[in-house]
Design goal:
Layout (H helix, E strand, L loop, with lengths): L12 H11 L4 E6 L6 H10 L6 E6 L10 H7 L42 H19 L2 E6 L6 H12 L5 E7 L22 E6 L5 H12 L6 H11 L3 H11 L34 H14 L3 H13 L5 H8 L23 H11 L4 E3 L3 E3 L3 H10 L2 H16 L6 H11 L2 H17 L3 H13 L5 H15 L6 H13 L4 H17 L4 H11 L7 H12 L8 H16 L4 H17 L5 H5 L9 H21 L2 H18 L3 H16 L6 H11 L8 H14 L2 H13 L7 H17 L3 H18 L9 H10 L3 H15 L5 H18 L2 H17 L3 H17 L3 H18 L2 H14 L18 H11 L4 H8 L3 H15 L12
Parallel strand pairs: 1-4, 1-5, 2-3, 3-4
Antiparallel strand pairs: 6-7
Helix pairs in contact: 1-2, 6-7, 6-8, 8-9, 9-13, 10-11, 10-12, 10-13, 10-14, 11-14, 14-15, 15-16, 16-17, 17-18, 18-19, 18-20, 19-20, 20-21, 21-22, 22-23, 22-24, 23-24, 24-26, 26-27, 26-28, 27-28, 28-29, 28-30, 29-30, 30-31, 30-32, 31-32, 32-33, 32-34, 33-34, 34-35, 34-36, 35-36, 36-37, 37-38, ...
Length: about 1000
């Protein structure tokens, strides 16, 4: 008789070594990813078994059907840390914060510190995170495992991100997740994870087993060393190589006597198939999903009625449950359904009756498994689903009613689970009641994604009564407008609005929120503004709501309307607010008015900013102030008010953290990337910008600043393809949905790129399109990087008169505006025009004024470009020595920034002038160390550039580049260009 051996870890030697290598050398962060049933948990357990005994292992699980309890999986794990903790007198006092969260550790923790002096959710959360960090530090060395991170709440992800930024010295963190089920694809922690220096970081990806792996696994399970390759290949085809499915299929192939097909009656190998095992064609008669169900059916068939009832109860409960809860679902007292289920307090002992016997039998049979903390459930979700589907419908509904009644008696009612059971029981009134309450609770706790998910599910259900859809649609639209996820919500709201069953006021609010969602999260500005405009007629009886819509439309950075139209909308919004006694609404409109003034460079903008109610007692008002400061920061940057932008960012972050407004923090983080580029803080800026783009796949508008910066950095380094792709992604090809200050700057970069490539017609086309958008809008202060580039393109095309007209139009447009950057740009444009006319002294004065203005901001890259222009003019005047000094200074500035192409251009100019290049910094490289020039060449080789292209970027001869490339290959010890990696 053949019996299944314990599940084996097959084909995972490399992954096991990688996992062990990371966790035995903390601090470490290991991400274990793979699909359902692929063996993530089995791999982690195998690694744990090989760890030294002195290491503390803490395990927490995320559940699919979760309650809005942030940080739950981590706290579940920490409850078992008592044995590893020192005396509480040796613990950091901040760990006392955890007393209320971890009552099991209360006697081991210091007293709870006093609450913050003000109601500050952000400060309280930060203190909680510090407490967890300190507790793990004290318990080290610790292996913290968080299973199924794809089901984690946002709070848990935030806490894990905090731990991974600067993990305790003795902590090894391992998280398992399914990549395809993550809320944000590819981002298990919600944001891009960057490996901190000194942290042993690793990603362990589990793929399905190949044919040999399946053969070895099946052979190990059956205790048979020689399974045929043909059988293994067919088994691989039917199971996809997923270990769990392989195990279940192999289990289902055993006959009633526990023998493997192909064995004779005495248990010896027969003659069918290679190696005496089963005929592989036998697998063709069974579909894999059915085999899984049959495997469970086979296991259930040998159970007693008591054990089967316990298994059915566990399947209906879906999540692992304790004995009293399973008992309550299994059997009400005396068989009286009306009396309700048996309910015992959590942790109370089971009376050992027939239901307890049934659970023990199910555990012995391996149908159910014991999970941590006395919870019982299935080995896998697929096993639970197979049992659940086998329960007759009337019995399922009955069990769901019992589960709902039992859960309703708990002190902290699990509303999400109650809603789930009510829906499955057919109690639609209770489903609505619990579902709405669960969404409200999740939103109150800051778990907006869960609240949106719950409301989405209810609205998508055909059983939801027609009259309930309107109120739920409004709730969904309000929540979605402040979240980040949008795709499914947009579809639902559009469908609901198309039915036209909502009352006008409710329809207007829902449409307004849809417009906000499209404009902000979805990046569909044009569509979003159409929805807001369409909402206004339905909001005539709701002036406050209409004012919100008008204030949104009034922001001039969006849409094709001229500035006069935006001013009209702003005036209308202000007039509507007067009649409303609503401080938050007044703050909303005032915040937009202040941002409007700064965006257009109004001289009164800074005065208006001082009127923001930053100290208002209402958290809602302060959230609007935080939004205002984030918008002021963003608006001050294109004007050249960099110090003011930084001050607004500091104020905005403080108020946002105090009031719990996280969205403005994201906005200011994106703005800071553009600000650091302009002010010359380029160190690690590329990495930050890439991380920002990866972090916001659901909210592309938040990434346009980062795309712009990546494009301009690539332009400065001679990476033409990258520059073009990034600059177009910054909004230059979606004019009506673009953030115009950024799009105008990106168009300036594209004009320069075309001119570098010698594509004058393309530069001209980009210039005319971008200038037309700026002219239509009428806000010329956003043209600081567009107009000089456009003037240069027009001059290069021989259109001197048109270039002069553009410069004068620009001058008129910025007259009376407080925009230092635009004023400096005007000097650049006028200098180019004067030089084109041959009036060199005038050109020289313009370029000098531009250089001084950029230095005062400060904007070092702009100052270096102006210095180059000044040097070119001095060369035409015959002043070679002064020109050389200016070019050498510009080359040094470019080199300091990391602007490879620009620095090379300046060195080429110095050679042309007949003066040596700027002094080299550091010693000449020797041996296998690359020189600065060779590093530049190596970087371009790694990008796949040809020698001709490298010569063009670095302003060198082809022969010189040939020599450099040969030296790079020799010093790096490689034979081909494809083996060259970009230098650090």
């Amino acid at each position: 008789m053949t019996s299944l051996a314990s599940p084996a870890l097959v084909g995972r030697d490399t992954q096991l070594r990688a996992l062990l290598h990371a966790i035995i050398d903390p601090p470490a962060v290991v991400l274990v990813q793979g699909e359902a049933g692929i063996g993530k948990t089995r791999l982690v357990r195998a690694a744990v078994e090989l760890l030294p005994d002195e290491r503390t292992v803490l395990v927490g699980h995320c559940h699919q059907l979760r309650e809005p309890f942030p940080y739950g999986p981590v706290f579940d794990a920490l409850r078992h840390a008592a044995a590893a903790l020192p005396d509480r007198s040796a613990l950091n006092p901040v760990t006392g914060t955890l007393r209320g969260y971890l009552p099991e550790l209360a006697e081991h923790l210091p007293p709870a510190p006093p609450p913050p002096p003000v109601d500050d959710p952000s400060a309280e959360r930060h203190r909680l995170f510090r407490a967890v960090h300190a507790l793990l530090s004290a318990a080290g060395p610790v292996l913290l495992v968080v299973e199924d991170l794809h089901w984690a709440d946002d709070g848990t992800r935030d806490l894990l991100r905090f731990l991974t930024d600067q993990p305790p010295a003795g902590l090894a963190l391992v998280v398992t997740f399914r990549r395809e089920d993550l809320p944000v694809p590819g981002l298990p922690f919600g944001h891009a994870y960057r490996h901190p220096q000194g942290v042993n970081s690793s990603v362990v990806a589990l793929a399905p087993l190949d044919v040999e792996g399946v053969r070895r696994m099946a052979g190990t399970l059956l205790g048979r060393a020689e399974l045929s390759v043909s059988f293994a290949a067919r088994l691989r085809e039917h199971t996809g190589g997923v270990p769990f499915v392989v195990e279940e299929v192999v289990r289902s192939l055993l006959d009633e006597a526990g023998r493997f097909p192909g064995a004779d009656k005495d248990g010896e190998d027969g003659e069918g198939g290679e190696g005496g095992d089963a005929d592989p064609t036998g697998l063709d008669r069974i579909a894999v999903p059915l085999l899984l169900r049959e495997a469970m059916a086979e296991q259930l068939s040998g159970l007693s009625p008591a054990a089967l009832r316990a298994v059915h109860a566990a399947a209906v409960l879906q999540l692992p449950a304790d004995e009293p809860l399973i008992a309550a679902v299994v059997h009400p007292p005396d068989g009286d359904e009306a009396a309700g289920p048996v309910v015992r307090p959590p942790g109370a002992p089971w009376d050992g009756g027939p239901d307890g016997t049934g659970l023990r039998e199910a555990l012995r049979a391996g149908v159910l498994l014991e999970h941590p903390d006395g919870q019982y459930g299935f080995r896998h979700t697929l096993a639970q689903q197979a049992v659940y589907d086998a329960i007759p419908g009337p019995d399922r509904r009955l069990l769901h009613r019992r589960a709902m009644a039992a859960l309703a008696t708990l002190d902290q009612r699990p509303l999400v689970r109650l809603a789930y059971h009510a829906r499955r029981a057919g109690d639609f009134d209770a489903w609505r009641r619990h579902g709405e309450a669960a969404a409200d609770q999740a939103a109150a706790l800051g778990d907006v994604p869960l609240a949106v998910e719950l409301l989405e599910g209810m609205l998508a259900d055909p059983k939801l009564p027609h009259e309930a859809r309107g109120p739920l649609a409004l709730r969904l639209s309000r929540l979605a407008a402040v979240g980040l996820s949008h795709r499914r919500v947009v579809r639902l709201l559009r469908h609901l609005l198309s039915d036209d069953f909502l009352a006008p006021g409710a329809r207007g609010e829902a449409r307004l929120n849809l417009g906000v969602l499209l404009s902000n999260q979805a990046g569909a500005i044009e569509a979003g503004r159409r929805e807001v405009l369409a909402a206004l007629p339905d909001l005539t009886d709701r002036p406050g709501m209409a004012a919100r819509g008008l204030a949104l439309l009034a922001i001039p950075a969006w849409g094709p309307e001229p500035i006069a139209t935006h001013q009209k909308w702003m005036d209308q919004a202000e007039s509507l607010v007067v009649a409303e006694d609503d401080p938050e609404l007044a703050a909303t409109v005032h915040a937009n008015k202040v941002a409007f003034a700064m965006l257009v460079g109004s001289p009164e903008a800074f005065e208006l900013a001082e009127t923001l109610p930053a100290d208002h007692p209402s958290a809602g008002v302060r959230r609007q102030v935080a939004r205002a400061y984030s918008n002021l920061c963003d608006a001050a940057i294109p004007l050249g008010h960099y110090a003011a932008a930084e001050r607004y960012a500091r104020l905005g972050r403080r108020i946002a953290e105090e009031s719990g407004a996280l969205y403005p923090v994201y906005l200011m983080e994106m703005s800071s990337i553009r600000l650091d580029w302009l002010t010359g803080r380029w160190e690690r800026l590329r990495e930050r910008a890439v991380a920002a783009v990866e972090r916001m796949p659901e909210a592309p508008l938040l990434g346009v600043d980062a795309q712009l910066v990546l494009g301009m950095l690539a332009l400065a380094s001679g990476e033409w393809e990258e520059a073009g792709r990034r600059l177009e992604a910054a909004g230059t090809r979606t004019a009506d949905s673009a953030f115009l200050p950024v799009a105008a700057c990106a168009s300036g970069g594209l004009i320069e790129l075309s001119l570098i490539r010698g594509e004058v017609d393309a530069a001209l086309a980009e210039a005319r399109g971008a200038v037309a958008r700026l002219r239509r809008k009428g806000v010329w202060v956003w043209g600081d990087q567009l107009v000089p580039a456009a003037v240069t393109a027009l001059l290069r095309a021989g259109r001197r008169h048109e270039a002069a007209e553009l410069a004068e139009e620009f001058a008129a447009g910025i007259e009376g505006r407080d925009a230092p950057s635009a004023m400096a740009a005007l000097e650049v444009a006028r200098g180019a025009l004067a030089r084109g006319r041959g009036v060199l002294e005038e050109a020289l004065e313009c370029h000098a004024r531009a250089r001084e203005a950029y230095e005062a901001m400060p904007r070092p890259y702009g100052a270096a470009r102006a210095a180059e222009d000044e040097a070119d003019t001095r060369l035409e005047l015959g002043d070679r020595e002064w020109a050389a000094r200016l070019v050498a200074d510009a080359a040094e500035r470019y080199a300091t920034l990391g602007s490879t192409h620009d620095a090379a251009r300046c060195r080429h100019k110095l050679r042309t002038i007949g003066v040596g290049g700027p002094p080299r910094r550091g010693r000449r490289a020797a041996g296998g160390v690359l020189s600065p020039r060779e590093r530049e060449v190596a970087r371009l080789v790694a990008q796949g550039r040809t020698n001709r292209e490298i010569a063009e970027v670095l302003f060198l001869s082809r022969r010189t580049v040939d020599t450099h490339v040969a030296r790079v290959l020799q010093k790096l010890g490689v034979r081909t260009r494809t083996e060259v990696d970009p230098p650090p």
